[in-house]
Design a protein that fits this description.
The chain has about 725 residues and is mostly beta strands. It has a single domain (about 1-729), classed as TonB-dependent receptor, beta-barrel domain (Maltoporin, Chain A, Beta Barrel). The protein has helices at about 1-30, 60-65, 80-85, 95-100, 280-290; strands spanning about 75-80, 105, 120, 130-135, 135-140, 160-165, 180-185, 195-200, 205-215, 225-235, 245-255, 260-275, 310-325, 330-345, 370-390, 395-415, 420-450, 450-470, 480-500, 500-510, 535-545, 550-570, 570-595, 600-610, 625-635, 635-645, 650, 655-660, 660-670, 685-690, 700-705, 710-715, 720-729. The strands form five sheets. The chain has a 22-stranded antiparallel barrel. A five-stranded mixed beta sheet has the order 1-6-7-4-5. A hairpin with an 8-residue loop joins strand 10 (about 225-235) and strand 11 (about 245-255). The longest helix is centred in the N-terminal third of the chain and has 28 residues, at about 1-30. It is globular. InterPro entries: Beta-barrel_TonB, Beta-barrel_TonB_sf, Plug_dom, Plug_dom_sf, TonB-dep_rcpt-like.
Length: about 725
């Protein structure tokens, strides 16, 4: 352990030393590089980036809700700031933005962004089986690689969301890249000095107030630019007694150093209080309504006062991008992020467990006393991601390293809610850590004019350490560590058929270390019995764009070995081995610019995800998804009518809990007033209707009750209206 900690400090020390040294180097050498300038904007120069060119207002690339970049080497849908600004509601987060993409669907039962997303699925992969990055930095819970959508970034602070439906090449780092990468990027500071006040209100008692200040380009400090966005929002939510109060602030600073280096600093702070249930039974939905969530009865385990969370989170990084001369470039980010969650819940909300006895069978003081649980999960990650590229005669040599260490403390106690949350027994008391190291190397080889071949390899190293005085699931002590490591080769080919038409093919190996949760019922004598999940991904596709048309399509096949399934019982995740799974499908997306400001948009997918041997469908994998609609954008007036269709699927394994297809149609209307002056931002007004046709049916299995294993469900939130106004000050 001491040796590992020293190694951690060496890695971070090298990252810090390298950043400082390169800043000094850039100051000394900036004049020598002046003849070879580098675009050092904050937007990542990746395959997921936009291609620009025809992306002017009124063109198909500009108006398309999603589009595939011409430079992509795998199926990718880019959602740009134009779409985000026009379609986000006061509480929207990255999950609400991403769901318009092919093969993607989500579960947002309390209204858009008004509850932590209860499921965002890509090709049937659930959260924890794909990667999420912020400005290129992988992040998430180390115990199961999932993400908390309402605890980090607000939609209005995002410049782009890219849904990469593939493992990427060797340079794509993260804990679960085989299911794809949801690449979330912050927006850039504005070129002009501005201050905008904004606010909104809508259904379910939803409101938000905030302001954004941009410094503009500050020449006296060498071109500094920054923005600060701070807001507060609240909502009662669609579900009964499941409200949310949230405060969020994000600061981004960019500082050029000479002509060839830029430093970027970002910090995000978020505070969240929410009342969250676990779903409702079919009987409750039928008798109490599709919006049944929590009750106002203090004698019940589903009382909203017993079911609440207090969450504080932050995310910071210091980035350096520099042209070192001689064809060398570097991109380095040192970062940290944290999540502090103190939660409370009734023992079996909306379930059958009786009062008077806690979850471990301890009899409470009175038979009417309400049993509950109190939990804490506090973690912080510290890491560094460095990328070094070298331009050579035949292409580009790429190498880099991602290192992350996340330390986590977790506690849960059974409590007597009636007796003021007096502790009655202990469920878990543990600390754990995950160290991840992923070095990589790859070559972009310009084999022929227009043809780029990209072979590469990444080495994925994970070390889990668990020290539990009371281990979850067993109640006994456990002190163990386990290392998992694999080389992950990849190969991609990209061919420019024409200047606006490209094709690609890709093959890559995927790997994910076992979740910490799978150790909860494993003794220290058999940690090796848990096998990592592994995949081979194969896909090919093509992308075309012009001013009138964007069109892309792809086919994919994924051979998944040792898939770990998950179901929720009494609010706790239970994991099991599903064996092998085959994923395959076809995906299409297109937009077409008509005339007089109108354009058409559509995407669709045919997806198949079944277990090997039995041929049974896995959970939450619809056979069909589609999105389509009409968009108008001209002379400051914007309007869109977009429908998302999600096909039939099963909520659990064994083709059980069949769920019907559903549609959700959203309307967005916006108007940008003419500028009062050239140096003044315009006034903007926006009106959105979510779920226009008021579908309120069951859309997802939420889990099972703890008492009788009764299924719990999430429904589609009913029709909702939101209005927002942004005014320059």
């Amino acid at each position: 352990m001491i040796r590992l900690k020293r190694g951690v400090m060496r890695v971070l020390g090298l990252g810090l030393y390298g950043s400082v040294s390169l800043v000094a180097l850039s100051l000394n050498a900036q004049h020598a590089w002046a003849a070879d300038p580098l675009d050092l904007g904050s937007v990542e120069a990746t395959a997921a980036g936009d291609d620009g060119g025809e992306a002017q207002p009124g063109t198909a690339p500009y108006e398309a809700p999603t589009k595939a970049p011409l430079a992509a080497a795998q199926p990718t849908s880019v959602i740009d700031q134009h779409y985000i600004d026009q379609h986000s509601t006061p509480g929207s987060d990255y999950a609400d933005i991403a769901r318009i993409s092919p093969s993607v669907w989500s579960v947002d039962p309390d209204g858009p962004g008004l509850m932590e997303n209860q499921g965002l699925f890509i090709r049937g992969f659930s959260d924890g089986q794909y990667n999420v990055t912020f400005d290129g930095i992988p992040w998430g819970d180390s115990n199961d690689f999932t993400h908390h959508s309402t605890s980090y970034f607000m939609a209005r602070d995002l410049g782009q969301v890219a849904v990469d439906r593939g493992p990427g090449t060797a340079e794509t780092v993260g804990n679960a890249t085989f299911g794809g990468t949801l690449a979330v990027d912050s927006k850039d500071p504005l070129a002009a000095q501005t201050f905008d006040a904004y606010g909104g209100a809508g259904s379910f008692g939803t409101w938000n107030l905030g302001g954004q200040a941009d410094s503009g380009f500050v020449s006296k400090s060498g071109g500094t630019s920054m923005f600060l966005d701070a807001q507060a929002m609240g909502s009662d939510g669609y579900l009964t007694n499941e409200g949310q109060q949230r405060k969020n602030a994000l600061l981004k600073v960019e500082q050029p150093i000479g002509d060839n280096t830029v430093l970027t600093f970002v910090t995000m702070q978020n505070q969240l209080h929410q009342n969250v249930g676990l779903g409702a039974t079919k009987q409750q939905i039928q008798t109490l309504g599709s919006n049944w969530g929590l009750s106002s009865n203090p004698a019940s385990q589903d009382y909203y006062g017993y079911n609440q969370d207090y969450i504080q989170s932050d995310f910071e990084y210091l980035g350096l991008k520099s042209d070192l001369g001689g064809g060398w470039t570097i991109d380095n980010k040192i970062y940290t992020y944290a999540y502090y969650h103190h939660g409370y819940n009734g023992l079996d909300p909306n379930g059958e467990s009786v009062n008077g006895v806690d979850g471990n069978g301890v009899v409470l003081a009175q038979a009417s006393d309400v049993p509950g649980q109190e939990m804490k999960m506090d973690y912080r990650s510290v890491g560094d991601i460095v990328r070094l590229n070298k331009q050579v005669s035949f292409g580009t040599l790429k190498t880099g390293l991602w290192y992350d260490r996340q330390t986590n403390s977790r506690e849960q106690y059974e409590v007597d809610e009636t007796a003021g949350q007096a502790i009655t027994s202990i469920d878990r008391r543990m600390t754990d850590a995950l160290d991840t190291i992923q070095p990589y190397g790859e070559v972009d080889w310009k084999a022929l004019p227009g043809l780029t071949l990209t072979p590469g390899v990444k080495y994925a190293y994970f070390r889990r350490t668990l020290n539990a005085t009371v281990n979850q699931g067993t109640g006994s002590s456990l002190d163990m560590s386990k290392v998992y490591a694999r080389p992950l080769p990849s190969a991609a080919a990209h061919y420019d058929i024409a200047s606006n038409w490209s094709a690609y093919a890709q093959v890559a190996k995927g790997f994910m270390a076992p979740n910490l949760n799978t150790f909860y019922t494993v003794s220290s004598n058999s940690p090796g019995s848990i096998k990592p999940q592994e995949t081979w991904n194969y896909q090919a596709g093509s992308s075309y764009r012009s001013g009138k048309l964007t069109l892309s399509g792809d086919v994919y096949f994924i051979d998944f070995q040792n898939m770990i399934g998950k179901r929720t019982v009494d609010g706790n995740a239970e994991f099991f081995n599903q064996g092998g799974v085959y994923y395959k499908g076809v995906e299409l997306e297109s937009s077409y610019a008509l005339t007089h400001g109108f354009s058409l948009y559509g995407n669709g997918s045919l997806n198949d995800a079944r277990q090997k041997g039995t041929g049974q469908w896995i959970a939450d994998a619809p056979a069909i998804t589609a999105a389509y609609g009409l968009i108008y954008d001209k002379d400051g007036l914007y309007g869109s009518l977009l429908n998302k269709y999600v096909g039939a699927r099963y909520g659990d394994t064994g083709q059980t809990q069949a769920l019907d297809p559903f549609n959700q149609t959203d309307l967005s209307l916006g108007y940008t007033l003419p500028k009062a002056a050239t140096n003044v931002a315009p006034i903007k007004a926006k009106f959105t209707v979510s779920n226009l046709f008021d579908h309120q049916g069951i859309i997802s299995l939420a889990g099972y009750t703890g008492g009788a294993n009764t299924p719990l469900y999430w429904t589609d939130p009913g029709r909702s209206f939101f209005f927002s106004l942004e005014i320059p000050m």
